């Protein structure tokens, strides 16, 4: 879903509980974060709804390199020939977004949230 002008010239595209932003300036668009891979057709539609084309995309800025931020970056880089900017500390993670160290162990999650444990019908 595209929310236009969440701030002047800044539009938020939400897909599967993740957000990416399209920042319009002059005749260009900067994409901030790139969502999940499946957001691609929605990103194309959002550009169209804004009266833009992939040719107007200046590049993509990644705020950090978790999987829900880098999803379409590689594809845009290849198909649209746009740069992707990411902090040098996140370059490796951007290339392998599913290999990040979690801040908290996930082993205790089922103990804290027992409803997350699949129930067997028996």
List the helices and strands and how they pair.
Elements: E1 2-7, E2 10-15, E3 18-25, E4 28-32, H1 40-49, E5 57-61, H2 67-70, H3 73-80, E6 84-85, H4 91-95, H5 109-112
Compact description:
The chain is an alpha/beta fold. It has helices spanning 40-49, 67-70, 73-80, 91-95, 109-112, and strands at 2-7, 10-15, 18-25, 28-32, 57-61, 84-85.
Report on the structure:
The protein has helices spanning 40-49, 67-70, 73-80, 91-95, 109-112, and strands spanning 2-7, 10-15, 18-25, 28-32, 57-61, 84-85. With 122 residues, the chain is an alpha/beta fold. Strands 1-2-3-4-5-6 form a 6-stranded mixed beta sheet. The chain has 5 helices and 6 strands, in the order E-E-E-E-H-E-H-H-E-H-H.
Quick tags:
6 strands; 6-stranded mixed beta sheet; alpha/beta; 122 residues
- Specify Rg, calculated over alpha carbons: 17 Å
The total strand number stands at 6
Element order: H for helix, E for strand? EEEEHEHHEHH
Strand order of the largest sheet: 1-2-3-4-5-6
User: What characterizes the major β-sheet?
Assistant: 6 strands, mixed
Structural class: alpha/beta
Residue windows where pLDDT falls under 50 for at least 5 positions: none
Oligomer: single chain
What helical percentage do the residues reach? 25-40%
Give the helix tally: 5
State the end-to-end CA separation: 41 Å
Approximate strand percentage = 25-35%
Mean pLDDT: 81
Query: Can you tell me the overall shape?
Result: globular
